[in-house]
Design goal:
heterodimer, A: about 200 residues, alpha/beta, Nitrile Hydratase, Chain A, 2 domains, two-stranded parallel sheet, 11 helices, about 45% helix, about 10% strand, B: about 100 residues, mainly beta, SH3 type barrels, 2 helices, 5 strands, about 10% helix
């Protein structure tokens, strides 16, 4: 077979990961199978999980109230395991728009959104989201009216955040599946809003 | 450790620069805000980072700051806000 990939030596951190993993396996602390299963589990967590939560909240006001009161427990109702973290759900309204950042590192609701996008971890987003959120949102194509208050949530400790976006007009009568399809990852970070 | 502040209380973040693993961002040190909620008590990250127990657990709060207070010359809605999780030992009672 013709080789078409480009091959490069391991980077410093890749080499560190391989060395650490091999040592842990060699010492019997974890098995190769456990590592593979964990990686698989991380890959299976995608923003569709979060979208399911949002769509359910849009169609069931009582669930929405429980979600806003205790995000972790409400997700468990849907069979979504939110391990060891407290989920805080912030609701967008015509008056208030919420967005999430972690200025210290890259804290992110992985259990509902999966692996964070690179921009979320970038110095650019992390430093500017708290200082000039309107300019940052405009770069994402979201131009908010000056009438709308912006609340930026800095995930500095043990909470994790999910934005509950507003349900777009004209989606009355849609099924949960159809609604979930318009809830993108960026809507739940608060740098976009769902479009019909 | 019992919770010293309640939602609605005005608080000020300590302006201190100790070494170590600190979860209080630099930009918010010395700023005044209002407690939005008490999140519960959690292991102190400054202790946990030193491989110690993190005990006693520290009350953790979400504190709301107005952008116009934090950044001189901030332009936007006067109600634009920042909400940051801050451990109790980083907070002192605020005035006003």
């Amino acid at each position: 077979m013709k080789e078409t990939g480009s091959y490069q030596p391991y980077s410093y951190f890749q080499l560190m990961e391989v060395s650490l993993r091999e040592l842990l396996v060699e010492k019997g602390i974890v098995t190769e199978a456990q590592v593979a299963a964990t990686v698989e589990d991380m890959r299976n967590r995608t923003p569709e999980r979060g979208a399911r939560v949002v769509a359910h909240a849009w169609t069931d006001p009582e669930f929405k109230a429980r979600l806003l009161a205790d995000g972790t427990r409400a997700c468990e109702e849907l069979g979504l395991d939110v391990p060891a973290l407290r989920l805080v759900v912030m609701e967008n309204t015509p008056a208030v728009h919420n967005m999430i950042v972690c200025t210290l590192c890259s804290c992110y609701p992985r259990m509902l959104l999966g692996i964070p996008p690179d921009w979320y971890k970038s110095r650019n987003y992390r430093s500017r989201a708290v200082r000039e959120p309107r300019a940052v949102l405009a770069e994402f194509g979201l131009h908010l009216s000056i009438e709308t208050e912006i609340r930026v949530h800095d995930s500095t400790a043990d909470m994790r955040y999910l934005v509950l976006p507003m349900r777009p007009a004209g989606t009355e009568g849609w099924s949960e599946e159809r609604l979930a399809a318009i809830v993108t990852r960026d809507c739940m970070i608060g740098v976009a809003v769902p479009r019909k | 450790m019992s919770a010293r502040f309640r939602p609605g209380d005005r608080v000020r973040v300590r302006k201190a620069y100790p070494l170590g693993h600190i979860r209080t961002p630099f930009y918010i040190r010395g700023q005044s805000g209002v407690v939005e909620r008490h999140c519960g008590a959690f292991g102190n990250p400054e202790e946990l980072a030193q491989m110690r127990s993190g005990e006693p657990k520290q009350p953790l709060y979400r504190v709301r700051f107005l952008q116009t207070d934090v950044w001189p010359g901030y332009r936007g809605n006067p109600g634009d806000a920042l909400e940051v999780e801050i451990f109790q030992h980083w907070l002192e009672p605020g005035s006003g």
